[in-house]
Design brief:
Elements: H1 6-9, H2 11-26, E1 29-30, H3 40-46, E2 57-58, E3 61-62, H4 68-85, E4 89-91, H5 97-109, E5 114-118, H6 134-138, E6 140-144, H7 155-165, E7 169-172, H8 183-193, E8 196-200, H9 205-209, E9 222-226, E10 237-241, H10 246-257, H11 263-276, H12 279-300, E11 305-306, E12 315-319, H13 327-336, E13 339-340, E14 342-343, E15 358-362, H14 364-368, H15 373-388, H16 393-409
Parallel strand pairs: 1-13, 5-6, 5-7, 7-8, 8-9
Antiparallel strand pairs: 2-3, 4-10, 9-10, 11-12, 12-15, 14-15
Helix pairs in contact: 3-11, 4-11, 5-10, 7-8, 12-15, 15-16
Bound molecules: pyridoxal-5'-phosphate (PLP).
Pyridoxal-5'-phosphate is lined by residues 34, 96-98, 125, 127, 173-175, 200, 202-203, 226, 237.
């Protein structure tokens, strides 16, 4: 076997990687609410020789020999996760948030059971029973809506949907919900219909870890999450639970829905959890919330309406139904100005999902770069201007220039030795 530098061994892949570093570093403001930038130590763990080994099973109970160090790493990840989230048990093997959810549905309630999740266009995720996803195809899902007046999830609506569908499991947790999740309310509903309560905290796990969003425990029985969104770790999933569900959760992941774990990713998760236990991470999460409020202030100056009127987490959902632009057009105009957001349905959106009447804007990635309230308020104003004048090329160029200045002022990987 010959070891060569990637630049020599595979110049095409190398070139694309170099370009991607450049794109992340200095081409646009990353404001997709589910994205973030990981520190060098996580990239190092992910790019390690752990990828060489099969470690099917769990620490101390592997199907292959030679797992001493894999056990050590997976145990570190599990212990740290339990400590951070106040959970009895953690399974750090899910390859993604979606596989974590599907494993739970299949193993804990089964294909003949009923599940209740949020309406997709009201902030839910495809893996919450949408019919284009395996979750909707294989399981009997019902859906609860967001309240039309408050634009929040309210007990009366969830209860009504729960009484109608009579679920064995209720999913609470969202991809485009700008407010705190009221786990106590969902517990009350779950108790009323005798269902297991599962929280999917994929988006907010960084805020929960830092204690700036209420914890899903003790109200929830099972908690699924990704590890690459606000918690800023290696790409992947995780399941946390109370002791009574521990062995079912483990078999839901392996052997029910996955084979061998991605141990290099699990090492990246372990390092992520160590970072998330530091006081600096608490400050980071606190700053995300402040930054999102500042962003909302900037948007308000241009009279943009936000779903539920504002935010108490890491994202805002701008309602464009009264504006001249669709979500798709706003996304494109902002991309021309080097601001990257995504079009997103708003509740009761008259437009199809490929078009939409909304944009979702998040601050975790820019907060990682070190930006604070002043920058985010200014960015909110720039977004407002572009959304109100999507055809004005000069304006978009000017905004793009200001974006370049901001990117230079708040470097990402430039100062470290990391290039990819
Ligand atoms: C992102 C997300 C997921 C899925 O995560 P993947 O790792 O992309 O599969 C699941 N649930 C919610 C609420 C999400 O926002």
């Amino acid at each position: 076997m010959e070891h060569r530098d990637l630049s020599e061994a595979d110049p095409e892949v190398h070139k694309a990687l170099e370009n991607e570093v450049e794109r992340q570093e200095s081409e646009s403001l990353e404001m997709i609410a589910s994205e973030n930038f990981v520190p060098r130590q996580i990239l190092q763990a992910q790019g390690s020789v752990l990828t060489n080994k099969y470690a099917e099973g769990y620490p101390g109970k592997r199907y292959y020999a030679g797992c001493e160090y894999h056990d050590k790493i997976e145990n570190l990840a599990r212990e740290r996760a339990c400590k951070i989230f106040n959970a009895d048990h953690a399974n750090v093997q899910p390859h993604s948030g979606t596989t974590a959810n599907i494993g739970i549905y299949g193993k804990l309630v089964g294909k003949d059971a009923k599940i209740l999740g949020p309406v997709l266009s009201h902030g839910g995720h495809l893996s919450h029973g949408h019919n284009v996803s395996m979750s909707g195809d294989m399981f009997d899902f019902g859906a609860y809506p967001i309240n039309e007046e408050t634009e929040r999830f309210e007990k009366e609506d969830v209860m009504k949907a729960a009484r109608k569908h009579d679920p064995d499991l209720i999913v609470c947790g969202f991809s485009a919900y700008p407010r705190e999740v009221d786990f106590e309310m969902f517990r009350e509903v779950a108790d009323e219909v005798d269902a297991i309560l599962m929280a999917d905290i994929a988006h907010i796990s960084g805020l929960v870890a830092a204690g700036v969003h209420p914890s899903p425990f003790p109200e929830c029985d099972i908690v699924t999450t990704t590890t690459h969104k606000s918690i800023r770790g290696a790409r992947g999933g995780m399941i946390l639970c109370k002791e009574e569900y521990a062995s079912d959760v483990d078999s839901a992941v392996f052997p029910y829905s996955q084979g061998g774990p991605l141990m290099h990713q699990i090492a990246g998760k372990a390092v992520c959890f160590k970072e998330a236990m530091k006081p600096e991470f608490e400050e980071y999460a606190e700053q995300i919330k402040k930054n999102t409020k500042a962003l909302a202030e900037g948007l308000r100056e241009h009279d943009l309406r936000m779903v539920s009127g504002g935010t108490d987490n890491h994202l805002v959902l701008v309602d464009l139904r009264d504006e001249e632009v669709t979500g798709k057009e706003a996304e494109e105009a902002l991309e021309d100005a080097d601001i990257v957001v995504n079009k997103n349905s708003v509740p009761h959106d008259p437009k199809p999902p490929q078009v939409t009447s909304g944009i979702r804007i998040g601050t975790p990635a820019l907060t990682t770069r070190g930006m604070e309230e002043n920058e985010l308020e200014e960015i909110g104003r720039m977004i407002g201007e572009v959304v109100k004048n999507p055809e004005e090329e000069v304006l978009k160029d000017e905004v793009g220039e200001r974006v370049s200045e901001l990117l230079e002022e708040f470097p990402l990987y430039e100062d470290s030795e990391v290039r990819y």
